Amino acid sequence: MIYGYIRVSSDKQTVENQRFEINNFCEREKIKIDGWIEETISGTKAYDKRQLGKLLNKVQKEDLIICAELSRLGRNLFMIMEILNICMTKGCRVWTIKDNYRLGDDIQSKVLAFAFGLSAEIERNLISQRTKEALARKKAEGVVLGHQRGFRCRLNPQCVKKHDWIVRCLNAGHRKTWIARRLKISKSTLYRYLVYSGIHEPTKCKQNSWIKHGVFH
C-alpha cells in the first residue's frame, strides 16, 4: 500500500499545496497513492494522538508513506526519530519530497534520518529565538504586546452583533440579567460591554475595581 500523508497546523493553511507536490512526485515516479491521510493539527501533538498514529499501527512491510517533508511528521527531533524507527521496525518505507529522503533498512537511512531531524529542529529553534529577541526589543521600546485586559469583553462579538437589540431592550425596561441570559453571556460581560460601548457609565465602585485589576489604562 502507498499512503500520502498531509498535515497542516491550522485551518488557515491549505492541504492543497502538499497534495499537489505529492501528486506531481507520484506522476514522475509512476506510482499511485492507495490512500490519503489528511489532518489539521499541530506537529507538537503526540503522533499517537493524531491520524498518523493510526496509520503507523496498520502499515506493513513494503508499505510506503509519502509526505512533503520530514517536518510534516513531527516538530522535534525525538518525535521524528521515534516515528522513523517504528517504520523501520515494520519494514515500512518513508519518502519525502522536499528533503529528498528515502527511508530504508540500511545504516545510511538511519544516519540521514537523524541528520535531517536535527537540522529541522535547529532551524526551528533559531527562528523561535529570533522571534523572542524581536518581541523583547519591541517591549523595551515601549510597544504594548498582545491584547489589553478587558479587550475581549469590550468587543464581545455577541454583544456587538446584538448592539441595537440590547439598546432597545434597555429602553424597554428589561433587566440586564434577562438580557445577558438571552445572549448566553454573563451579566458582568454584558455590563463591561455597556460601559465600553458608551451605553452606561461605570459606577465608582466598579471603575475603581477595574482600574485596580488593570482593565482601564
Descriptive notes:
The chain is of the alpha/beta class and 217 residues long. The chain has two domains: 2-121, Rossmann fold, CATH 3.40.50.1390; 151-212. It is built from ten helices and five strands, in the order E-H-E-H-E-H-E-E-H-H-H-H-H-H-H. Strands 2-1-3-4-5 form a five-stranded mixed beta sheet, sandwiched between helices. Helix 3 (77-90) packs antiparallel against helix 4 (107-140) and helix 8 packs across helix 9. It is elongated, with a radius of gyration of 26 Å. The termini are far apart.
**N to C succession of SSEs:** EHEHEHEEHHHHHHH
Task: Tell me which CATH architecture of the largest domain applies here.
Answer: 3-Layer(aba) Sandwich
> What is the count of structural domains?
2
CATH structural fold name of the largest domain: Rossmann fold
Helix content: 40-55%
The percent range for strand residues is 5-15%
- In CATH, the homologous superfamily of the largest domain goes by the name Resolvase, N-terminal catalytic domain
Instruction: Give the termini separation.
Output: 61 Å
CATH class of the largest domain: Alpha Beta
Low-confidence stretches: 149-153, 204-217
Number of β-strand runs: 5
The assigned structural class equals alpha/beta
Radius of gyration: 26 Å
* Main sheet specs: 5 strands, mixed
State mean pLDDT (0 to 100 scale): 80
Walk across the major sheet and give the strand order.
2-1-3-4-5
Q: What is the general shape?
A: elongated
